[in-house]
Amino acid sequence: MRRVEHVMGFPVSLRIDDQDAPESAADAVFAWLREVDERFSPFKPDSEVSRLDRGELSETEVSPDLAEVLALCEEYRLATGGAFDARLPGRGLDPCAVVKGWSVQRAADLLSAAGARRFVLNAGGDVVASGGPWRVGVRHPEHAGQLCTVLALADGAVATSARYERGDHIIDGRTGRPATGLLSVTVVAPTLTEADSVATAAFAMGAEGAAWAAGRPGCEVFVVDTEHAVLRSAGLPVADTGRSAA
């Protein structure tokens, strides 16, 4: 089963290799992601995030899902000394850096609960997979047609933060200016919630973020800095064989 939809501002592709996986499992994945877009987008005036930002809701009145997202945002704000911050000065509340990985991981959990065992869910280049090995290519930060490395992903997730798709969109909360020092940060972790959040947080930290991400429990990293030096953690799962995922 293969399916692609444009949700939350980026393409989401789903591949399920289990022949008996129900079509309803894929339906549930995309229904959930559309729900997330409606509830948590800071760009939709009626979303729960926008209502909280305007003061129409208090943090004690938000849904359990949004409370979980806000707690994760605060966790990474503290862990990075304020470099990662969903509440930047002069800007509205924007938890998107956590919402993406968190929501796609929840979608993958829906697939597992429905009985899918071999699948890949690719959300704008960030991948969560089960039943591998799968091969996941990491794009060169300066040359779109080239790869830096290829990873072997069995059961887990990989996410990359860089400026090549959206420019200087990641802000260092300590300075209020675009993050500098790194060209790309790729993180492999047990869940996409962690992989995506750690990659974004590390990028926001700049040069010091490489070692910080490598020191996070359960995380393996591939980082390219602005001097084109590469930090590759010892346990990074570099691919030899497997099926192609991304």
Main sheet record: 8 strands, antiparallel
Poorly predicted segments:
none
Give the overall pLDDT as a whole number.
93
- Overall 3D form: globular
Strand coverage percent: 25-35%
Alpha carbon gyration radius: 18 Å
User: What is the CATH architecture term?
Assistant: Roll
Query: Structurally, how many domains make up the residues?
Result: 1
Describe this structure in words.
The protein is α+β, with helices and mostly antiparallel strands and 246 residues long. It has a single domain (2-244), classed as Roll (T-fold). The chain is built from six helices and 13 strands. The chain is globular, with a radius of gyration of 18 Å.
Short account of what is shown:
The chain is of the alpha+beta class and 246 residues long. 32% of the residues lie in helices and 27% in strands.
Layout of strands and helices, then pairs:
Elements: E1 2-7, E2 10-16, H1 23-40, H2 48-53, H3 64-79, H4 96-113, E3 119-123, E4 126-130, E5 134-139, E6 147-153, E7 156-162, E8 171-172, E9 177-178, E10 182-189, H5 192-205, H6 209-214, E11 220-225, E12 230-232, E13 243-244
Parallel strand pairs: 5-13
Antiparallel strand pairs: 1-2, 2-3, 3-4, 4-7, 5-6, 7-10, 8-9, 10-11, 11-12
Helix pairs in contact: 1-4, 4-5
